[in-house]
Design a protein that fits this description.
The protein is an alpha/beta fold and 276 residues long. It folds into 2 domains: 6-157, 3-Layer(aba) Sandwich (Rossmann fold), CATH 3.40.50.10740; 168-274, Glucose Oxidase, domain 1. It has 7 helices and 10 strands. Helix 1 packs across helix 4 (139-152). It is globular and about 50 Å long. The chain starts with 5 loop residues before the first strand and ends with a strand.
């Protein structure tokens, strides 16, 4: 139990959040922490404009407002999908000192924003569960894991495969391959990179991993770990390589150690990976 009230603001830089999911997360936070947590769902979370949680301008404004809130300890991203890569190039110019002391938690499409935050040295970005995960089978455990890290820095919520001498980051592979083009400042050198994927054919996963590990940003990587690759459509013809074989191939080609599995993915077992 937190000793003082922790304010967490939820915003939706990508797709919007169903009201029902927000209700479930509020109830869970109340059961876990009572009045010790002030969990605020920004009104922007529930906007809708086509694919997105409101227009780009509304998502920019909500992100800026949450980041600059002097009383908030964390900004929690509501849901993935697509949209965080469309946030304004000058977004961080609007951030004040309060933005630099916060945690920022999300995954999937939010990797675009986590990469930008990390490159700019803004706050503590982390890959991990989001509020919308509560609607997954077993998703309450994932959301509780995220809350415990946001509120308590709970070590049991953190992905356990760590090497003290090597910092680490985690991303969805397709998102990171795109982010490397859009955000040239992505920092991978000297770090362990954890990758996961969902809903992509294996040829597309192979292409993304190859692009990542062949990029200038990946020079000097300390190693790669592979999270779960889920809901993979069949290749025609069959690709005949497993996700691990794909990652090992590219690691061998570029001379980066393959370090084994990582406990991350688009499921209820997804753990938190603070960027270090």
């Amino acid at each position: 139990m937190a000793s003082s009230k922790t304010r967490i603001i939820v915003v939706a830089p990508a797709r919007n959040l169903p009201e029902g999911a927000a209700t479930l997360v509020r109830a869970l936070a109340s059961r876990l922490y009572g009045d010790a947590v002030d969990l605020v769902f920004h009104a922007q979370c529930f906007l809708s404009e086509g694919h997105f949680a409101g227009p780009d301008s509304a998502r920019d404004a909500a992100m800026t407002e949450a980041a600059n809130d002097p009383d908030a300890a964390a900004v929690w991203f509501a849901r993935g999908g697509y949209g965080s890569g469309r946030l304004a190039p000058d977004l961080f110019d609007r951030f004040g000192p309060a933005a630099r002391s916060k945690k920022y938690l999300g995954y999937s499409d939010l990797g675009f924003l986590l990469a930008r935050l990390d490159a700019a040295g803004v706050g503590q970005p982390a890959h991990g569960p989001m509020p919308n995960d509560i609607v997954r089978p077993g998703g309450e455990a994932a959301v509780a894991r995220a809350l415990k890290w946001l509120v308590e820095d709970d070590e049991g919520s953190v992905e356990p495969h760590r090497i003290p001498s090597a910092p680490r980051v985690a991303f969805n592979a397709i998102v990171l391959a795109s982010a490397l083009l859009a955000s040239p400042g992505v920092r991978l050198a000297g770090r362990i990179l954890m990758l996961e994927e969902i809903g992509e054919q294996l040829y597309a996963f192979d292409r993304a991993v190859g692009a990542i590990l062949s990029s200038d940003a990946a020079r000097g990587l300390a190693g790669v770990r592979l999270g779960r690759v889920l809901d993979t459509p069949e290749n025609d013809p069959p690709f005949e390589r497993t996700p691990e074989e794909i990652v090992r191939f590219w690691c061998d080609r570029v001379g980066v150690p393959y370090l084994g599995p990582a406990n991350i993915g688009h499921d209820a077992d997804n753990m938190v990976v603070p960027f270090t």
